[in-house]
Amino acid sequence: MSVAMMGALEQGLLFAVMALGVYLTFRILNFPDLTVDGSFALGGAMSATLITGGTHPVLATLVATGVGALAGAFTGVLTTKGKINGLLAGILTMIALYSINLRIMGKSNVPLLRETTLYSLAKDVSIPDFTVQGITFFSGVALLFLVGVLILKGVLDYFLHSDLGLDLRATGDNPTMIRSYGVSTDGTLIMGLALSNALVALSGALIAQYQGFGDVNMGIGMIIIGLASVIIGEVVVGDKSIMRATLAVIIGSLLYRFVIAYALRIGLSPGDMKLMTALLVIIALTLPNVLRGMNKHLLVIGKGGNKSC
Question: Where does the record place a coiled coil (predicted)?
Answer without folding.
Answer: none
